[in-house]
Amino acid sequence: MMDKNGQPCPYSAVRTDVVPFIDLGVSDKCGGGWPRFILRADLEKYYLTGGYITFVCAIMVVHDRPIPVPPLNIKKHFSSLLGSTDVSFVINGETFHAHRAVLAARSPVLEALMSSITLHDITPATFRVILQFMYTDALPEDDELGDSPSEMLQQLLAAADRYELDQLKLICAQKLGDNVSVDTVAATLTCAEMYNCPELTSALTSRWRGISRRPC
Where does the record place the BTB domain (predicted)? Predict the structure, then answer.
């Protein structure tokens, strides 16, 4: 707002958000303002000149532009998934790679083929612990490993070796080594050698030497 000398007065400047004005025809009454912008007495004393008040306004005209929508590209994205697949089909010597979830969603027959995998070299109790570890990186407490925790740990070590779960294998080796006794050392050592666990073999050998050297 300009004062009587034609100078802008910063004390009467007010910043506002952008106010859209929509053309509604003759009934258009769109507008904006502030209920307590300035005292009437100050307005008449400092800004009223010849019955007029001068305002300096910054107006931005924005032309309506539709928001651009890129072309659909789900085909491109899903095709790129073929670079990282989780199942393969071998047909007359030729291999095709795909994703289990996509094929199962598209074909009930393929869903039935891939929805169940039968394992014959592991007990349900052992596999339950294996699954829990793969999802959580944690093993149950020893009192939750059944009647014989040592036997269960040996089974877990064997399964970890078979399915290449190296971290689980070392955890089982540590637990077996920490809880070895005269009654279990032979079976545990056999397990370590059978399932290629030199860390456990070394720990058992050192501990057994210590036990065998103790005076009776």
Answer: 85-143
Find out whether 173 and 139 touch, Cβ atoms under 8 Å: no
- 45 DSSP assignment: I
Say what the pTM is: 0.51
Question: Among the CATH numbers 3.30.710.10, 3.40.1390.10, 3.50.50.60, 3.30.460.10, which is that of 74-114?
Answer: 3.30.710.10
Q: Cα(189)–Cα(30) distance, rounded to whole angstroms?
A: 88
Per the listing, tokens 């869903």 go with 111
Same fold, 74-114 and 124-211: yes
How many other CB atoms are there within 10 angstroms of residue 48's CB atom? Answer: 15
Q: Express each pLDDT in 46-96 by its tens digit.
A: 778 888 877 777 776 666 666 676 777 776 776 676 677 888 878 788 887
pLDDT tens-place string over residues 84-106: 788 887 878 888 778 888 888 87
Q: What is the pLDDT of residue 97?
A: 79
The answer to whether the beta carbons of residues 162 and 172 sit under 8 Å apart is no
